[in-house]
Design brief:
By secondary structure, the protein is mainly alpha-helical. The protein has a single domain (2-316), classed as ABC transporter involved in vitamin B12 uptake, BtuC (Orthogonal Bundle). It has 14 helices and no strands. It has helices at 2-28, 35-43, 46-60, 68-84, 89-112, 118-137, 147-154, 164-182, 184-194, 196-201, 206-232, 243-253, 265-284, 289-321. α4 packs across α11 and α7 packs across α11 (206-232). The protein is globular.
Length: 339
């Protein structure tokens, strides 16, 4: 119960920060609260937000997928090649999503069957998928997609400022939120993140579930690549470069523990819009891209440091209230320190 309470408090704090950022944006720019700006700021982060949803489940299971940005780039490159080969988009897009699933399966099998660390595996496939994208499409860009495809990326639901990619993100967030928090699959994911050996002895098929999560991550990364291609009206091998860092930042800012076993989808959704509003305000203030990158890096550090410091402080207070002297920090076990 105390852990649930701490998560709720983190999400409440995040909601307060988001409201504060909105107030600052409204006070500093007349453009900020316009429907057009809302459409722009939300559309700008939907691809990385979709990646972050799958990343949330993987990190809750105490793994990580650093290859999502290169899978999105590979998806864009393959989509461009298929279109140049006169393959209809109704056929090309499902093929690209299938490719993403297969790429995720490769990651999952290397982690679960071969027993390799996911950090090392996905660093390798980060370079592998990007290299394949360059082989597939080279330095050229494909930009002669049909107008209806391009309109999906930057168009809005008729009569509203809501971008179509936001609708896709909302549907995925609801589905994955229900999966993680309301089903036995979600309970197994949390169990794996807290103690994989105990989960295995309890009958959880750890390797199968972890592999499935990587398949999901690869598929959603490919979907993000398709959406980004649509929004930019161009397929390129270097599409989505640098988005892995942003995806991880969103997940950790949303309160998901980097050590696994803790996190919520609603926290990640709040983090998506917090980051979107912050980036939008920086752009409206004409802050350089370099300083925006520094801001994301600082957010990543804060997202990891604050929950850890808060858990250690709570542990210290609980020990003091119980009349016991807290042990030295170096002697604390992972479970005692909340890790």
């Amino acid at each position: 119960m105390s852990r649930l309470t701490s998560l709720v408090r983190w999400e409440t704090l995040l909601a307060i920060v988001l409201i504060g950022l909105i107030w600052i944006g409204a006070a500093s720019s007349d453009v900020f609260l316009t429907p057009r700006n809302f459409s722009n700021l939300s559309a700008a982060v939907m691809e990385v937000a979709i990646m972050a949803l799958a990343m949330t489940l993987i990190i809750v299971a105490a793994e990580i997928d650093l290859s999502v940005e290169s899978m999105a780039g590979l998806a864009s490159a393959v989509l461009g090649l298929l279109w140049l080969s006169n393959v209809p988009l109704a056929v090309a897009i499902p093929l690209v999503l299938l490719m993403g699933a297969l790429g995720g399966l490769v990651n999952g099998l290397l982690v679960t069957v071969a027993g390799l660390p996911s950090l090392v595996v996905t660093l390798g496939t980060l370079a592998l998928f990007r290299g394949l994208a360059l082989v597939v499409l080279g330095p050229q860009a494909v930009s002669n997609f049909p107008p209806e495809f391009n309109a999906f990326g930057f168009g809005t639901v008729p009569g509203t400022p809501i971008p179509w990619p936001l609708v896709v993100f909302a549907i995925l967030a609801v589905l994955l939120g229900l999966l993680l928090h309301k089903t036995w699959i979600g309970r197994h994911i949390f169990a794996i993140g807290k103690n994989p050996e105990a989960a295995r002895f309890s009958g959880v098929r750890v390797w199968r579930l972890k592999a499935s999560l990587f398949v999901l991550s690869g598929t959603l990364a490919a979907l993000a690549g398709v959406i980004l291609t649509s929004r930019l009206s161009s397929a390129r091998a270097d599409t989505a470069s640098g988005l892995t860092l942003t995806a991880v930042t969103i997940v950790l800012l949303g309160g998901v523990s980097i050590f696994g076993g803790r996190g919520t989808i609603i926290g990640v959704v709040l983090a998506v819009f917090t980051l979107a509003v912050l980036q939008n305000e920086l752009r409206l203030a004409r802050v350089s891209a370099e300083l925006q990158s520094i801001t994301i890096g600082l957010l990543l550090i804060v997202s990891v440091a604050l929950p850890t410091i808060a858990r250690q402080a709570k542990y210290f207070v609980d020990r003091v209230r119980a009349g016991r002297a807290p042990p030295a920090a170096s002697a604390m076990t992972g479970e005692e320190s909340g890790i």
